[in-house]
Automatic annotation (TrEMBL), chain A:
Domain called HPt: residue spans: 38-143
Organism phylogeny: Eukaryota, Viridiplantae, Streptophyta, Embryophyta, Tracheophyta
Subcellular locations according to the entry: Cytoplasm, Cytosol; Nucleus
Pfam families: Hpt
Nucleus found in the keyword field: yes
Signal peptide positions on this chain: none
InterPro entries: AHP1-5/YPD1, HPT_dom_sf, Sig_transdc_His_kin_Hpt_dom
Protein name: Histidine-containing phosphotransfer protein
TrEMBL record, chain B:
Binding site residues for Cu cation: C65, H69
Phosphoprotein found in the keyword field: yes
Species whose genome carries this gene: Theobroma cacao (Cacao)
Function, as annotated: May act early in the ethylene signal transduction pathway, possibly as an ethylene receptor, or as a regulator of the pathway.
Protein name: Ethylene receptor
SMART domains referenced in this protein's UniProt entry, alphabetically: GAF, HATPase_c, HisKA, REC
Ranges of residues in domain Histidine kinase: 350-589
The reaction(s) this protein catalyses: ATP + protein L-histidine = ADP + protein N-phospho-L-histidine
Residue(s) carrying 4-aspartylphosphate: D663
Membership in a protein family: Belongs to the ethylene receptor family.
GO BP term, example: negative regulation of ethylene-activated signaling pathway
């Protein structure tokens, strides 16, 4: 596949991510921060996000598994996750976290478990999407092309 | 003769005498029997009779007497022994009872007599009570009249109504023929007839006030009976026939407002009285009774009070009217003054322009002329023209400046400037003239003088130049020394300026400049005049030096605007003089030199601001957002240090960091606490880094908390590049004018 085609595919793919609400404007900001002095900024941040989130999700699962659920701790974790996801623009994860936090306040265990499931689901989805995105970018770079900048009318 | 039981009377019966005795005895018996009956009858009729048993006794006595006399009837002729026995018994009984009665009466009769006395006594008492009742009733009547009169009098605040009502009511109550009121005239020497009851329009009848009868009335507070023939009582023309009724006069004190002290009762030591004269109807032979006099006195007092109330009311109405008039006048004056000022300002503005234009032409063209080829005389002439026109230009500027200074429309142009440069500039300007006069000028700047200051550079220079210029102007030979240093509190308070209380603070310092010259000096009496406009000292030497006399006045105005003080000391003529002034200047924050010329001029082109090399500290627990924030800041050119806990943050933060960005919505870690601690750590405000909060919460509580702990800004996460740039450039820019930083809420 030649570079132009790959670039077009990348653009379409990214557009679709935005349309479907996986990513929001914050992700664009991140992309803007990437420059010659910081060429892998976005990848670094997203990787960090993945690591952080895995850990947080594990902690959350364990915390909700306890016979006496410590909702404060659960809330703290969800807060962190929300912060991270909003920092990189993972919109759906962030929304799921917001809902999760509300149920934490109500101390509703069933609802929390359900939310946790939802968050996990969203997280894995966005992880998948981002990994695909990065692979596409790598392919373009490997083929000698440059990553097209997104001009979104957002 | 046979012996019989009959008793023979002692003497032989005489026929005629016996008959009369017989009849008398019979009647006596009858009477004696009827008396008790009558007694019983009448006693039964009367309700009260305390001595019943006396009656019984008396009755018994009389009955027995009667019985005795009745039985006596039988003893005139031969009677049997039984009759004699009965007779004897009756007599004995009668004797007993009558003795008893006689004895009893000894006790009874005084009692009965005393009853009579008591009755008399009671009758007297009743009469007395009746009299007293009459008195009380009269008094009550009087009281009622007084109340009614008072009510009538006090129900109005109008002086005329009060007096009229008084007279009418008094006339009615007391049934007077005439009632009149004499008021003192304005001069106080006469009494004028002001009101009468019957006569409709009293003629302006006056009586001198110092008549003995009037004095008599005035000297007592009681109603005084006066003769109907005295002038005040002669209200109608005398006609021979009638006998005038009794006349009573009473004084009515006219209380002045000044008689009423706040906590005192009014003293009736006022001199002014009016006279009320009351006349009973003539030919009525009525007399003035005590209670009527009392009534009159009470009414007089009430009238006095009512009149004083009326007077107070009149007074306050008058004062209010006066105030209103004054207000109107003041308003008018103010508007006129404003118009005048506006007219003057307009005039000045026009003249400003009109005068400067030709001046400009003259100066410009003369200087151009100087450049061309000229003969020496021509050059001299052109130089003189230039010098004169410069002088004129200065004069015009001075006059316009002064008038602008006067109406307070002048405001200082504050800005950062290089203090030392100002002094050096002045020195450069003055050096040529000084060297021509062969004067030695020295400049001495204290080492602790800040290099930069905030103030009005142009006007400060003008002031220094003026003062130094004066020093040079009035010195023929010798030296001029200029010293400048930061004034400390003790030296700030000068005995010469006792009302000057400088208070140095963190953001300001007081610059003190002393210019000492060895010139002609000033005599001590001329010193105060120095700062007045257009006043020149009289010595011809100074006259020739030129100048409009406005320079120092303008300097004083400028110095005052800069919250300082200027004065001149001199030991006398020929002993030189020292001009000293202090002004308040602001201290700029310590910052990069490169920023300096840029900052005050940059208004809102944020894009131009470069943050290169500025150190910031980022504190965020969340790794991802920490990285994102760092990326943003690095992209903007900052040098970023990252910490992830509050302890680390406090440990690392130093005065080298310009900004500290901290995430405050992490539960458990108190970003606010850190802010407070940073405030405590850096007491000098220009060393402290700016504190910006990053938060995902937009609610008011978060914002208030941030404000409370003294944060300088709040940014809502997630933050875009442009937002970060604009926020930080705003904050860093406004830092220079710190004194009153407002919370820049630059969220969404």
């Amino acid at each position: 596949m030649e570079v132009g085609q790959m670039q077009r595919r990348l653009v379409d793919y990214t557009k679709s991510l935005f349309m479907e609400g996986f990513l929001d404007g914050q992700f664009l900001q991140l992309q803007q921060l990437q420059d010659e002095s910081n060429p892998d900024f976005v990848v670094e941040v997203v990787s960090l996000f993945f690591d952080d989130s895995e850990k947080l999700l594990n902690d959350l699962t364990m915390a909700l598994d306890q016979p006496n659920v410590d909702f404060k701790k659960v809330d703290a974790h969800v807060h962190q996750l929300k912060g991270s996801s909003s920092s990189i623009g993972a919109q759906r994860v962030k929304n799921a976290c917001i809902a999760f936090r509300n149920f934490c306040e109500e101390q509703n265990i069933e609802a929390c478990l359900r939310c946790l499931q939802q968050v996990k689901q969203e997280y894995y989805l966005v992880k998948n999407k981002l990994e695909t995105l990065f692979r596409l970018e790598q392919q373009i770079v490997a083929a000698g092309g440059s990553i097209p900048l997104m001009e979104m009318g957002l | 003769m046979e012996s019989c039981n009959c008793i023979e009377p002692q003497w032989p019966a005489d026929e005629l005498l016996m008959k009369y005795q017989y009849i008398s005895d019979f009647f006596i018996a009858l009477a004696y029997f009827s008396i008790p009956l009558e007694l019983i009858y009448f006693v039964k009729k009367s309700a009260v009779f305390p001595y019943r048993w006396v009656l019984v006794q008396f009755g018994a006595f009389i009955v027995l007497c009667g019985a005795t006399h009745l039985i006596n009837l039988w003893t005139f002729t031969m009677h049997s022994r039984t009759v004699a026995v009965v007779m004897t018994t009756a007599k004995v009984l009668t004797a007993v009872v009558s003795c008893a009665t006689a004895l009893m009466l000894v006790h009874i009769i005084p009692d009965l007599l005393s009853v009579k006395t008591r009755e008399l006594f009671l009758k007297n008492k009743a009469a007395e009570l009746d009299r007293e009742m009459g008195l009380i009733r009269t008094q009550e009547e009087t009281g009622r009249h007084v109340r009614m009169l008072t009510h009538e009098i006090r129900s109005t605040l109008d002086r005329h109504t009060i007096l009229k009502t008084t007279l009418v009511e008094l006339g009615r109550t007391l049934g007077l023929e005439e009632c009149a009121l004499w008021m003192p005239t304005r001069t106080g020497l006469e009494l004028q007839l002001s009101y009468t009851l019957r006569q409709q329009n009293p003629v302006g009848y006056t009586v001198p006030i110092h008549l003995p009868v009037i004095n008599q009335v005035f000297s007592s507070s009681r109603a005084v009976k006066i003769s109907p023939n005295c002038p005040v009582a002669r209200l109608r023309p005398l006609s021979g026939k009638y006998v005038p009724g009794e006349v009573v006069a009473v004084r009515v004190p006219l209380l002045h407002l000044s008689n009423f002290q706040i906590n005192d009762w009014p003293e009736l030591s006022t001199k002014r009285y009016a006279l009320m004269v009351l006349m009973l109807p003539s030919d009525s032979a009525r007399q003035w009774h005590g209670h009527q006099l009392e009534l009159v006195e009470v009414v007089a007092d009430q009238v006095a009070v009512a009149l004083s109330h009326a007077a107070i009311l009149e007074e306050s109405m008058r004062a209010r009217d006066l105030l209103m008039d004054q207000n109107v006048a003041l308003d008018l004056a103010r508007r006129e003054a404003e118009t005048a000022i506006r007219a003057r300002n307009d005039f000045l503005a026009v003249m400003n322009h009109e005068m400067r234009t030709p001046m400009h032409a003259i100066i410009a063209l003369s200087s151009l002329l100087q450049e061309t080829e000229l003969t020496p005389e021509q050059r001299l002439m052109v130089e003189t023209i230039l010098k004169s026109s410069n002088l004129l230009a200065t004069l015009i500027n001075d006059v316009l400046d002064v008038s602008r200074l006067e109406d307070g429309s002048l405001q200082l142009d504050l800005g950062i400037f290089n203090l030392c440069a100002v002094f050096r500039e002045v020195l450069n300007l003055i050096k040529p003239i000084a060297s021509v006069k062969k004067l030695h000028v020295s400049l001495n700047l204290a080492p602790d003088l800040p290099e930069y200051a905030i103030g009005d550079e142009k006007r400060l220079m003008q002031t220094i130049l003026n003062v130094v210029g004066n020093a040079v102007k009035f010195t023929k030979e010798g030296s001029i020394s200029i010293t400048a240093f930061v004034a400390k509190s003790e030296s700030l308070r000068d005995s010469r300026a006792p009302e000057f209380f400088p208070v140095p603070s963190d953001n300001h310092f007081y610059l003190r400049v002393q210019v000492k010259d060895s010139g002609s000096g000033i005599s001590t009496q001329d010193i105060p005049k120095l700062f007045t406009k257009f006043a020149q000292t009289q010595s011809t030497a100074t006259r020739n030096s030129g100048g409009s006399g406005l320079g120092l006045a303008i300097c004083k105005r400028f110095v005052n605007l800069m919250e300082g003080h200027i004065w001149i000391e001199s030991e006398g003529l020929g002993k030189g003089c020292t001009a000293i002034f202090t002004v308040k200047l602001g201290i700029p924050e310590r910052l990069n030199e490169s920023k300096l010329p840029l900052m005050p001029k940059v208004s809102s082109n944020h894009g131009q601001t470069s943050f290169s090399g500025l150190k910031v500290l980022v504190m965020d627990e969340n790794g991802v957002s920490r990285m994102v924030t760092k990326g943003l800041l690095v992209h903007l050119g900052f040098e970023v240090t990252m910490v992830s806990s509050s302890d680390e943050c406090l440990h690392v933060v130093s005065h080298e960091h310009k900004v500290v960005l901290m995430d405050v919505c992490v539960p458990g870690m108190d970003g606010y606490e850190i802010a407070v601690q940073i405030h405590e750590k850096f007491t000098k405000s220009h060393e402290r880094p700016l504190i910006v909060a990053l938060t995902g919460n937009t609610d008011k509580v978060t914002k208030e908390n941030c404000m409370r702990v003294g944060m300088d800004g709040v940014i809502l996460k997630p933050v875009s590049l442009d937002k970060m740039r604009s926020v930080l450039s705003d904050l860093l820019e406004h830092r220079f004018f710190r004194g009153h930083i407002e919370m820049k809420n630059i969220g969404d």
